[in-house]
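Section 4.2 – Deliverable D4.2 (structural model, holo form)

The reporting period included a commitment to supply a predicted holo structure for the target in complex with 6-O-phosphono-beta-D-fructofuranose. Inputs used:
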Amino acid sequence: MAWPAYQKLLSSLSDTPSHGVTMGDLLEDRDRSERLQFAIDDMQIDLTRQTVTQDQLHMLLQVAKEAEVMQKCHAMLDGKMVNTSEKSPALHAHLRDPSQPLAQASVDIMASHLDRLLSLGITDVVSVGIGGSDLGPAMAVSALSPYQQGPEIHFVSTIDPSQMGDCLAMLDPSTTAMLVISKSFTTPETLANMTMAMRWFDDADIDTSDRVLAITANPKKAKELGFVDDAILPFDQGIGGRYSVWSVVGFGLMLAIGRAGFRAMLAGGHAVDEHVLSAPLYQNAPVNLALMRYWNVSVLGRQAEAFCPYDQRLDKLDAWLQQLEMESNGKSMDASGNRVDYFTAPVMFGMAGGNGQHSFFQHIHQSAMVTPVTFLAPLRPLMSDANMAADLVADHHDQLILNMLAQADALALGDANDPGFSGGRPSTVITWLQLSPYTLGRVLALFEYVTTMSGSLWGLNSFDQPGVELGKIRAKNYLDIYKGKAADDLLTATTKSLFHQLKELKDSLTNKP
Ligand code: F6P
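Output (structure tokens):
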């Protein structure tokens, strides 16, 4: 959507810091610094290192108004049919609103199964799911491991047999439960993994009727595959996979950290909902973060975004964010079905910054391609063993945070004595006091809004994912061909030769003396 204010922005490019005004000048401007810092309680969002002037920010806010970002956000929160292609609402925020029946019902059904599984003496849970049925729960369980009080949760997602094999090899079937998580309950990898695990339970003569649960928006399909009502945790079709960690899809997290911890994560997410609904546009943190993504991608042509949490517990946050942004906004058709003539979602990549700065930061600092970086970190460490040497814990964590700030400032200011460090490389710095279920919920909800609001700026439907289907359909056709159920005219020449290699290998393995 080339909004009228968008044209004005393009013409303002001569003011950006790389054209005369330096980043150092901008960072010294106190008024600008105040305008580019936001807060949600102890969570501070610092956009001062973004290469944008106050006038350009003012024009960006005009784009947000023309794109009706807040109107579209209210429509989503009011349960309107914002997913126009699938004729569905997007209800994930309702799951963290205690006044919504959807939220209470979701927590209640999880809590009842939690009590029941614990009463069975379950020590380990295999969580089978992929994409949005895996990335959110796996990230949250990993991030909140110091809050672990329940059974160990093991995540198996791909059809690579080694993943399920390595997982089951460590477990005792008599004290293991399984969650089969799939919104559609048709995803081949998930159903195949379910089959392999059920074979494992059967080989151990385990009655699984009270410890294998289906978590799905398609209970009918789950019943066709043998699940009874009491073994199904249903969720609403209006919950998108990549937005579903707040729902029963997050049951593995409640098993791991308990119902109070899960409720705290919901509350943290809801705090962002309340901020979004109460803060004026120019103080609205996700609106301004979305505008920065729009500014970098669609105005300045920066087509990637690095995401570097300076907290090793948040190392899986990148994978969750990649699906959230790239599956929501990696599109070239707008919500009305028109082709867009500008770039939309950036390529999201990254890793925990403590490692990342020793991996891809050469590119971030000196590539001809400028990549905005999002830095985020809690200011206090979260230790699983409180007996670690407190002086060293404090010193090491201080060094971690100082590294993050040094990287952000080195990117922004460069080195006047070295033309290889030009400065003016943008970043956002987000900090909060300490990682907890509540503060993790805030971070997740914040970036959900950044994605949906960026989608509004680009005129997209951020809630469907038509682009994932073609590869899946071809994979199913290839399986039919491989099994001799269909002709091989679909195959390219090189694929055909690999088919033959695969078959010869398989025959040689199965015919091994
Ligand atoms: O292929 C992409 C996708 O459809 C994601 O959108 C989804 O999160 C994932 O596959 C798993 O789908 P399901 O939860 O239906 O198994």
